[in-house]
Amino acid sequence: MRTLTRSKSIGLFIATVAAAGLVPLAAGTAEAAPVAAVAAAGSCPAAGTVTQWYHSGHDGVDIANNRGTAIYSAGAGTVIVSGTASGYGQWIRIRHDDGTVTEYGHMYERTVSVNQRVNSGQLIAYMGSEGQSTGPHLHFEAHASTSSTRGMDPVPYLSARGVSLPCTPGTGTPSTNFTTWGTSVRVRTEPRLSAGVVRTLTGPTAVYVQCQTRGDSVTAEGYTNDAWSYIPALGGYITNIYIDHPDAWLPGVNQC
Ligand SMILES: [Zn+2]
């Protein structure tokens, strides 16, 4: 694939892409599709061994390590609970900016208080074995909202935010690494033009590209490029033509 320096003329972009049949609308008009909230980059909650995964009798994951191991907020948000609770001994809940909630249990010491604003990856507690626990570990839950009564599987929740378990705090934790450009950029379930559209980006969007792969060849803006980026937070792929970088194949990004 040839590498070209990209023009950022949006008008030309729309006209070219529309002509290529990728955007079924008149040049110069924006598609009215709403943009779903993009999950912000997450952080590894704690280093350790996963001793129990999510299952029907366990609403979260257990990450075991030495007493006193640092525990970090899995994302930016506001502390809504920090205190004692039966079973947990001590617990913390954080409401994130996308409305989801993460929950942390069994800590031996907490370092944040209710209504405190925390960043993704901020120290919030130290691992303990308080409450119903047989050894030092973090019990970590993810909830869809403050009103959900059961946790969801934390593995896809964290994965959508760029964190896979087991994880190492502070390393490999992605922040957004690229920005899209153009309008009406389609995010598809597979790196193919025939694949379903999961959402449409109406304008430049900061994204975390987890990996890239070869897929359908796309021609737009004077390029032909078969590289596609997988963006976990968007739940799909976009052609690399819409990633704002002069190289067709993104440097420093693994192949999917
Ligand atoms: Zn547990």
From TrEMBL:
Species this protein is from: Streptomyces fulvorobeus
Pfam families: Peptidase_M23
GO molecular function: metalloendopeptidase activity
InterPro entries linked to this entry: Cell_wall_metabolism_enzyme, Dup_hybrid_motif, M23ase_b-sheet_dom
Residues covered by the M23ase beta-sheet core domain: 57-145
Signal sequence annotation: 1-32
UniProt keyword list: Signal
Name recorded for this polypeptide: M23ase beta-sheet core domain-containing protein
